[in-house]
Amino acid sequence: MAATAAGATAVLNYGGAQSAAASTGGTLTFPKDSYTTATKTITTADGAEKNVTYRFWENIVYVADPVDPTYQCLNVQQPVEIDGRAVDASHAPIFFSIPLGGFLSGTPGGTNPGGDFPGSSPSPGDSSSADPSATPTASPTTRPPLPPGAGDQGDNSALALAAGYVVVTSGARGRDNVKDGKYYGKAPAALVDLKAALRYVHKNKGLLPGNTDKIITNGGSAGGNFSSMMGASVGSPLFDSYLRDLGAAEASDAVFASAVFCPIIDLGNADKAYEWMYGSAELNGELVDQTASKQLTAQFAEYQASLGLHGVGRFGRVTAANYDRYLLENYVQPAATSHLRALSEADRTAYLTANPFIRWSGDKASFSWDGYIAHIARSRPVPAFDDKALSEPEPGYFGDETHVSRHFTDFGLRYATGDKTATVDRDIPHKVRLTNPMTYLEERNPRRARHWWLRIGTSDTTHSLTAITNLALKTQNLGDDVNLKMYWDGGHGANEDPGDLIKWLGEITGYSIG
């Protein structure tokens, strides 16, 4: 099935046999005997050091007809010995790591021209590459010390390896890729590449180590978008023509679970959500255009109502009118409470003195929504994503071969040009829909992942908290296993309980090395 025509709306057909893209030449066979052996020391979340010996396959191209094999390749790590004890990981769950940030290209070795998030950061606890001086620190009067492996922008691959999992790390094209004046990594290139990598892993079941029935994707920021997409869009026919063009393997792209950190998702509605949350907050000491902000906020109310999502417990339907209360009661105030309880009495007193908007009573924190928003402020203009100057990463993601950036919403285009009748390029609506996990969840995709680990910091002003919460609400409403938590004062890329992730993975997969 070819991709849906630009702007069209179609019900996705997940029935019947797994859709497949044609492979060429029969070349997509994993070279199981072509590995090197290496050893590294990994500091686990509880502070213990583990010496891990592993087999390492590097830069394995996962499509028969790559556009750029520098990025369209993957690495595989299979632990064989941990602290001198032999480990048989031939049937261990597969931890599928997505080291991509800013919608930029990235290699499986972590090279990402975006520099600081998350592709260029070392794996958590990996003493073979990590620079201890680069570990985020904080004053005890503001935040308790982070556990080992935290603050690593969602990259938990080293911890997974130390727990005996097979780790597959995939590269992909991105919005920055250009050759001979033409861009070749714009949306949906990265998603297509990652799906092709998943198909390669499934095709090589029995050759590539690990259990293909227990694949867990992991990513943060743009990588969080991709991880959520891998879980939500399993089996979607909308990617078939793209995959066919690359000579992707004829195989499943199934995912068992998705770990998603601070995801930049639901981009077609991101500007609306951002103004709902931050419209009254100052940017660099000044309010943004309040007319535009209020227009977008009104549009968010319509969008949120259309989703028909119901909150946990007996909360009922979550709407724009009560979303602030839902977030405060279920995530934001509990995050502040956990943070303050972890401080010494002296440090807690100092924090509360510095932040008088917080009421501390009965060993619990409470505050108003307005007080919370004033505490964190905003970090993006209006529109926040489809911005007037086309300087944010997202317009670059939706560029094309000849344009580095393009507007991807009618509102953004009209705000920038002043033309009240302007509409985005014809291919844009389809690509926006194609790259949104909510598209597939709204269709109740029966092949989706059924386990979701969702994390974000309460001071992450890169997106509205409603984006990840709507992802949680939708999957919860569908009956999936969802674990959503927010970190108080955590910024973009916060990852403060990596040990709990590893524990959760053991629970849902039933896997343990003993």
Automatic annotation (TrEMBL):
Pfam families membership: BD-FAE
InterPro entries: AB_hydrolase_fold, BD-FAE-like_dom, Tannase_B
Region annotation Disordered: where it falls in the sequence: 107-154
Domain of life of the source: Bacteria
Low complexity: compositionally biased ranges: 118-141
SUPFAM superfamilies xref list: alpha/beta-Hydrolases (SSF53474)
Domain annotation BD-FAE-like: ranges: 186-274
Compositionally biased region (Gly residues): 107-117
Protein name: Subtype B tannase
Organism the protein comes from: Streptomyces hokutonensis
Phylogenetic placement of the source organism: Bacteria, Bacillati, Actinomycetota, Actinomycetes, Kitasatosporales
